[in-house]
Amino acid sequence: MTISQLELANAIRVLSMDAVEAANSGHPGMPMGMADVATVLWSNYLKFDPTDPDWADRDRFVLSAGHGSMLIYSLLHLTGYARPTIDDIAAFRKLGSPCAGHPENFELPGIECTTGPLGQGLAMAVGMATAERHLNTVFGDALVDHRTWVIAGDGCLMEGINHEAIGLAGHLKLGRLNVLWDDNRITIDGSTDLSTSEDVAARYAATGWHVVACDGHDFADIDRALAEAAADPRPSLVRCRTVIGKGAPNKGGSHKVHGSPLGAEEILATRAALLWEHEAFHLPEALTDAWKAIGARGGAVRAEWQDRLSAHADRAEFERRMANKLPEGWSLKAHIDALLAEPKKIATRVASSLALEAINASLPETIGGSADLTPSNNTQTKAQVALTAQDYSGRYIHYGIREFGMSAAMNGMALHGGVLAYGGTFLVFADYARPAIRLSALQNAGVVYVMTHDSIGLGEDGPTHQPIEHVMSLRLIPGLDVYRPADAVETAECWELAVQRRDGPSLLALSRQNLPQVRTDAAENRSARGAYRLKGADADRRVILLATGSEVEIALGVAAKLEGQGIGADVVSMPCWSRFDAQDAAYREDVLPHARPDEILRVSIEAGTTVGWERYTMVDGLRFGIDRFGASAPADKLYEYFGLTTDAITAKVLARLGH
Amino acid sequence: MTISQLELANAIRVLSMDAVEAANSGHPGMPMGMADVATVLWSNYLKFDPTDPDWADRDRFVLSAGHGSMLIYSLLHLTGYARPTIDDIAAFRKLGSPCAGHPENFELPGIECTTGPLGQGLAMAVGMATAERHLNTVFGDALVDHRTWVIAGDGCLMEGINHEAIGLAGHLKLGRLNVLWDDNRITIDGSTDLSTSEDVAARYAATGWHVVACDGHDFADIDRALAEAAADPRPSLVRCRTVIGKGAPNKGGSHKVHGSPLGAEEILATRAALLWEHEAFHLPEALTDAWKAIGARGGAVRAEWQDRLSAHADRAEFERRMANKLPEGWSLKAHIDALLAEPKKIATRVASSLALEAINASLPETIGGSADLTPSNNTQTKAQVALTAQDYSGRYIHYGIREFGMSAAMNGMALHGGVLAYGGTFLVFADYARPAIRLSALQNAGVVYVMTHDSIGLGEDGPTHQPIEHVMSLRLIPGLDVYRPADAVETAECWELAVQRRDGPSLLALSRQNLPQVRTDAAENRSARGAYRLKGADADRRVILLATGSEVEIALGVAAKLEGQGIGADVVSMPCWSRFDAQDAAYREDVLPHARPDEILRVSIEAGTTVGWERYTMVDGLRFGIDRFGASAPADKLYEYFGLTTDAITAKVLARLGH
Prior knowledge:
2 copies of one chain form a homodimer. Chain A is built from 25 helices and 20 strands.
């Protein structure tokens, strides 16, 4: 019995509608609407091997319209991936099933990235396609020669990040990137006519893309369009004209099928319309065999590739890089030793550039960049040339004024593997990139954010540019390590930790202004503890001063004044909250011993919101910071204005101590 | 002596370069490059009257490229606004000068909105132009008939929000909106060629815009282009081909002039090139007179308008609305009384829609909307019809999948005046809108964010859609009131407070899931206190349970179990931290009395990050929340999984109490 393409596609449709029905929650419309397109893509174009989901030279498939997750769960199951099983699918959206509401890369091999927050899948795909071209120039066609395919919906195309992502892809001429647009003219509110009048094809063309259209329910036409897309040297948008919920005779084509189960009656009607006689989660063997055969197609291709890899001179390096592993014993020790030998009063953004010189020289996998703040973020090292459409071997990306697109692209690079992406902007504009920073953490993507101008210390640019709530609000994102180093040594330590963490993101908050070197020893990477006693009390300890970044200098000044009056004061530098919280109780107790405030007063100093610092100062401690927006003036004037000086803080601490 | 247009423009150039030089900080390139265009705009097109900066029917001028702030400071000064004075300009970027690094609407009348974070000025202008068309349909041409003019740079056009903003403007056919693009082909990193290859004009055309180009240094050509833009019924992009830092003979045309002072030598050279013989901050009288004459042009127009207003039947209502004042005595008391009379177990997002029925019926100035989540956010009330290009009288905007664009547009509407904008999305996507939410607060814009699906309680959509850090991270933004109401009554109270606050933003975090009505009395708006004792202890008070939103129900359950064991427990509902912190010490002490943990244990319950709750629980209190990402499952399963149930929490509280 020959299985038609329509039958293959209907397997996706039925699995999707049945899983959503069983969950009583989910989005059947998109998987049913795009089933035909996906069938052609996975049958005739996508390079993959279900027996080796991590095959380095596989094509990347990104379901940017992540709410249609049953589409990819169906495809992974049908083509023979070990998971999801049919039971996993039957448990769609239930606790413990890897078939979560939206596709999650940490749940199922074969899911390249976590999608759902619209637009970001496409933007991550731009990063994947960039990494592919870069690695191709490094390792050659024999090892790296694959495509990135995206399914995107109207939501992905309306989100602002779409503009940033396609602008970058067009500029970099990422011809291996093909976006299949599910043009169903329906959004949650109703027809797309309610909110947009754009000529999407013309917009993509204006941005350097090739555009081709097809009837998303005509298999031959889909095939023609995908062939055109694959052949064109530009990134391609394939406009697939589809009917949302295709197959559902009454609800198809309407927004009612977008995000709700079809209901028992419509499911019956759909089964009838599709001539589908099998019960839920049961597929006939001929059909599953046909899908499995499609899944088996890539095995031989992978075997040939494996042979090439085995014989390749660069095999070890390629495997190291694709596994996102550092060279054995990599560290910044030599760089840190040099800093200790010759202390420097420099901004931590400059210290960061010094660390990067050492990092980029020792790690060929780094790809740096900045959202058009290269001279301010100090992210480009001397030997780093630009990655361009003419030369993908470059290791620096001028991302343009696209903070969000940059961050999502970095996620895509990290998830692609083989490159270590870092990128810079001003810390205040972490807000622009925040949805991607969150996804870095959720997806375990080891990217490094270089965020300079981290407080009122940036001075004259004023409140629009001065972070107040940013450092703290970033600390709240689960899994993100936020570093605010105090000097050149800590900056190098934090960079070392960020680079060593290949399974999650790090963010460095760096000063614009110069800071003295407060660290004179480095038997170990002390920043790895998150917080440590930088200076112990000389007199009997009455005060512990906790500070981060540029305010550590102030804390040291306060401590000196207190000691001058016979009051013992520790200074604890606290570059990373999450690392400190992960230390054992004994270490934490040593740094911050339990005591009544009348025994030991704890004082925090950080030029940002004070909310949250109660965790370490206790409520009865003192917190110095800024709980309002900043102002425009030179940095030193602002520190005075906001009371963040050694004198002002010393006076308040003394007053509290009753002196 | 006749003053040429070039001399007028050179006054801007020289003031700008001299102010930046005096500050030793700032951006001379843009004001110098756009001086000619701005001169034509302000001389021949812009409707304004320096003697009445708040004139309701003035044209709105938005400097979206806010780093070029000296352009608008120069224009305001030269045309005769009371401020900035020449001394203010000489103190550019110094503490106390209203001439901040970036233009701030709260510093100087004549500055319509705060800009600097790129792209948002243009997006706010879309909101202003929308408000203008809406008010025009309400009050007629006699009172409302003005334009919105924007100067935007490459940064504004590359940011993702640009896509969202122009998509909305094109769809709504906002022909009164004209964007003057400073096409200088330079960004901070260097040439725009480094990062973009886009045909901007074609992209705008694809989005329904009219595009016209001019030589930005040819006064006649500029005039022709602005005339075309003004005449076209579509929103217009005027591509002004300029030289950045025009006038500086050596540095002009390069990125070196973007964000740094010219330096003494280049300033001398510029003075020579411009044949400018006057010292810094001294302008010849003929020149200042010529500029003042331009400023005086609008006086007669405004007088005529004032006459029309005085004679207008709707004068009082128009003035009330343009002042963003509520009708005398407005409240939601009747609505709240009805809720008390008939308690409801509903989601707070549904309670919000009930409150909105009352609000929209009593306040004609509301304009609601949603970023394509209308059926989920429950933001559209029954009588609310869509505001469309065909009918600007509508009071509901289908913003499309454009959270950031929506939020910035709402800021623009609020700053335009005359409308009260609210808009919805899922709370997790507050991240997409965060830069605009911050600007709502900084700008004192009285918008209301309706953020539903506020926790793991949304269930199956999983971690990408479940807020964890969001409520807390929003509380950190200075000036933003974040509300998380517990039931229908609190939702109405919080809505009342949000509406009554016309000088700053409010954000409502609302549940997807149903919640019982826990409030049975409403002698006053108890949410106005931020936190209040919902239930007092029956037995001797040993525990205070603090909770917000959907977790108040759990807190009441825990209290009941504790009381069952003879342990007295208060339940404090805490819908708004910022309001509680603003209460006097006596009130705060009454709700949260000072006591040792072994006397009174404080316990917080909130289905989000626990970081920050130490402020109210004390470090030695207990905090129940979620300090990791969520999961995909039905809501009740998730609450169990994360230990947020009455039983689980009661057990831990009892254990802590030694029971």
